[in-house]
Specification:
single chain; TIM Barrel; 2 domains; 8-stranded parallel barrel; two-stranded antiparallel sheet; 14% strand; globular; binds flavin mononucleotide
Length: 370
């Protein structure tokens, strides 16, 4: 029996296996609207046989977009555009679909990565960014405006409104983006948060706004919708956010009904020194899981099925997310099932692709037939 292909319950949401498709920005939306690219991209991933598909970081307000091409969920048009994509996915796949809701804060107003990712100039349509403190992400970059009480209230209600739209769309789960140096992470990290009010200073105060956002979102959607949080477990900078603080954050989230933690790292400072290597963030996931006692997703250079199997079998994490490897090989879970002697769901149109020696690979596929 493969651990990776054993079922799991994320709160009230049943998953067919432990493979999660990590959120991946496509920078291909127009005015926040999903388009044909999303139909093709998410459609392809929906046929992968993974246990959960998480839609890319989706901005809760216009100025929360990293680039002009970010997906958004802040207008009726955004909601309708995503509904079109989801309708097609639901016709052809039973994969549960989650969405990552986020706000880029001081890392907003940038070029798409394939144009260099640098800050936009006014001529290129730059906008005023916001953050916990008026500190730039990197020296020389435009200063963000520190959010005042009205700004905090606006951002919180934007998260709530987007979560309500996600629920109205029938999305199966919500992940709040509190990682990679974006707004909620900026509040957590002493590197980006130097406020002197109730939202900065001590760990408790730095956690206050992200926890308020979590509470508001949790209260805004039905209990059957799992709400989890993606964190950067460490800034990889001396004196920054670290694993111990992540565990404290996880414990606070657990008390509030958080359904899972998705453990990544880095992104808040150009000073970071990341020891990149296979599964380099898995030990962080394990520490957060043990310390906070929440269902945990490990992610980061997990590329081989045996590696993913070992992570789940050893209990280091409950779920394993894959990003780049599944872009490279969209049927990665099929190969994983083949290598681990497990079964995976595939669309009937593709059943004839099952290799002769792997007759049982799509064994339960008929169960999934609509
Ligand atoms: C194209 C691309 C887009 C990404 N966009 C997001 C995103 O929207 N939200 C997020 O939290 N992480 C994002 N990431 C990070 C991935 O979710 C993942 O954590 C990271 O790539 C490490 O996993 P991997 O080694 O399996 O690729 C992105 C990564 C890639 C390659």
């Amino acid at each position: 029996m493969s651990a990776l292909f054993s079922p799991y319950a994320l709160g009230a949401l049943p998953l067919r296996n432990r493979i999660v498709i990590a959120p991946m920005c496509q920078y291909s939306a127009e005015n926040g609207n999903a388009g044909d690219w999303h139909m093709i991209h998410l459609g392809q991933l929906a046929l992968s046989g993974a246990g959960l598909l998480i839609i890319e970081a989706t901005a809760v307000e216009e100025i929360g977009r990293i680039t002009h091409g970010d997906l958004g969920l802040y207008t009726d048009d955004n909601e309708a555009a995503l509904a079109r994509v989801l309708k097609a996915i639901r016709r052809h796949s039973r994969i549960p679909v989650a969405i990552q809701l986020g706000h880029a804060g001081r890392k907003a107003s940038s070029h798409v990565p394939w144009e260099g990712g640098q800050c936009l100039t006014p001529a290129e349509g730059a906008w005023q960014t916001v953050a916990p403190s008026a500190l730039p992400h990197a020296p020389g970059e435009p200063l963000p405006v520190a959010l005042d009480a009205a700004g905090l209230a606006r951002v919180k209600s934007a998260f709530v409104r987007a979560a309500q739209r996600a629920d109205a769309l029938g999305l199966d789960a919500i992940e709040l983006h509190a990682a990679h140096g974006y707004l909620l992470h900026q509040f957590l990290s002493p590197i980006a948060n130097q406020r002197a009010d109730a939202y900065g200073g001590s760990l408790e105060s730095r956690m206050r706004f992200p926890l308020e956002v979590f509470d508001a979102v949790r209260a805004a959607v039905p209990g059957r919708v799992p709400v989890g949080v993606r964190i950067s477990a460490t800034d990889w900078v001396e004196g920054g956010w670290d694993v111990e603080q992540s565990i404290a954050f996880g414990k606070a989230l657990a008390q509030r009904g958080c359904s899972f933690m998705h453990v990544s790292s880095g992104g808040v400072s150009p000073q970071q020194k990341i020891p990149i290597g296979p599964g380099y963030q898995v030990p962080l996931a394990e520490q957060v899981k043990r310390g906070a006692g929440l269902p945990t997703v490990a992610v980061g250079l997990v590329t081989e099925p045996a590696q993913a199997e070992a992570i789940v079998a050893s209990g280091e994490a409950d779920l394993v997310a894959v990003a780049r490897a599944i872009l490279f090989e969209p049927h990665w879970p099929w190969r994983a099932a083949a290598e681990l002697g497990a079964q995976v769901e595939a669309p009937p149109q593709y059943w004839r692709s099952q290799p002769r020696e792997l007759k049982a690979l799509f064994g339960d596929a008929r169960i999934g037939q609509r």
